[in-house]
């Protein structure tokens, strides 16, 4: 088999589009299609389902994928045996929940790309889990650590969440000093049947009525809160982006969650992805710590001004 055809197969498996695969490979999309068809003819099996939505791997394609990925990892390791520290280049697709993608990753990825001008990073911000076996992304950030699949999971950092509301909302209501005081308030949160990770069901163990305004999007929830329409559970790291919101019940109610970096096991020997992962982890840890510290300092200042 021609390794170049395998390279084309791998690119198409990862992006599911002839046009995007052509951009990655710097190749005409029609040539990508012909090369894949040639490979299918050589193997005597269909590797992709074709549709208007794009190219999806067949069962035969899914069986072939890990072998091609392993071969690519070996070649990458052979090309950079000493991991010399040269600048990163090429395209990396990173999946992340939208809270992380909106309020943490832009700053972190901007710094990484500034250090590596030849690097192209795609941030896929979706409120769902990513399937790395189907190459929806090269790596993904998750809240819960996956328990199945040939995956490598590394904890990045803890982060914290508290109830928050707009100052205008809090000014119109009596002080909130305990959980019971939340009864009768308008709550904002996730759409219950669209919570894709149990760690995001923040209100599950509280004796409160269901949220009245809901969204599967963290930024939408944050913007609903900014309208002065109610209270909701908010990532501390998001609050510097919404300085009109105030934390409440800080001594009484606090949640701790963690971000994990999830990679396909076959990619661990890929020096380029490994170095990107290391920079990403360091950047996210620093960013969460910096933003949470800023929120705590703002609270201390507000408390000193309004004892």
TrEMBL record:
GO terms for biological process: DNA-templated transcription. Residues 274-301 form a coiled coil. Keywords: Coiled coil, DNA-binding, Transcription, Transcription regulation. Residues 1-58 form the HTH lysR-type domain. GO terms for molecular function: DNA-binding transcription factor activity; sequence-specific DNA binding. InterPro entries: LysR-type_TF_proteobact-type, LysR_HTH_N, LysR_subst-bd, WH-like_DNA-bd_sf, WH_DNA-bd_sf. Pfam families: HTH_1 (PF00126), LysR_substrate (PF03466). Belongs to the LysR transcriptional regulatory family. This is Transcriptional regulator, LysR family. It comes from Roseibaca calidilacus. The lineage of its organism: Bacteria, Pseudomonadati, Pseudomonadota, Alphaproteobacteria, Rhodobacterales.
């Amino acid at each position: 088999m021609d390794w170049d055809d395998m390279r084309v197969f791998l690119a198409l498996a990862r992006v599911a589009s002839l046009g995007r695969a052509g951009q990655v490979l710097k190749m005409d999309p029609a040539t990508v299609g012909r090369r894949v068809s040639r490979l299918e003819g050589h193997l005597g099996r269909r590797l992709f389902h074709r549709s208007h939505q794009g190219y999806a791997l067949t069962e035969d394609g899914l069986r072939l994928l890990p072998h091609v990925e392993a071969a690519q990892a070996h070649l990458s390791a052979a090309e950079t045996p000493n991991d010399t520290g040269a600048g990163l280049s090429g395209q990396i697709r990173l999946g992340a929940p939208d809270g992380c993608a909106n309020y943490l990753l832009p700053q972190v990825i901007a710094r990484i790309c500034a250090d590596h001008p030849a690097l192209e990073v795609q941030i896929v911000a979706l409120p769902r889990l990513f399937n790395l076996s189907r190459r929806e992304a090269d790596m993904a950030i998750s809240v819960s650590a996956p328990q199945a699949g040939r995956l490598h999971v590394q904890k990045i950092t803890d982060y914290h969440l508290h109830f928050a509301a707009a100052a205008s909302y809090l000014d119109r209501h009596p002080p909130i000093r305990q959980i019971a005081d939340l009864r009768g308030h308008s709550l904002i949160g996730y759409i219950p049947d669209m919570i894709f990770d149990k760690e995001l069901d923040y209100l599950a163990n509280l004796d409160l009525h269901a949220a009245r305004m809901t969204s599967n999007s963290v930024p939408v929830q944050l913007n609903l809160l900014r309208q002065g329409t109610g209270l909701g559970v908010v990532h501390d790291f998001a609050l510097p982006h919404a300085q009109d919101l105030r934390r409440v019940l800080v001594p009484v109610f606090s949640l701790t969650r963690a971000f994990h970096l999830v990679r396909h096991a076959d990619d661990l020997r890929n020096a380029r992805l490994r170095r990107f992962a290391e920079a990403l982890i360091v950047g996210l840890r620093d960013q969460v710590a910096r933003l949470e510290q800023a929120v705590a300092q703002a609270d201390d200042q507000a408390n000193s001004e309004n004892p």
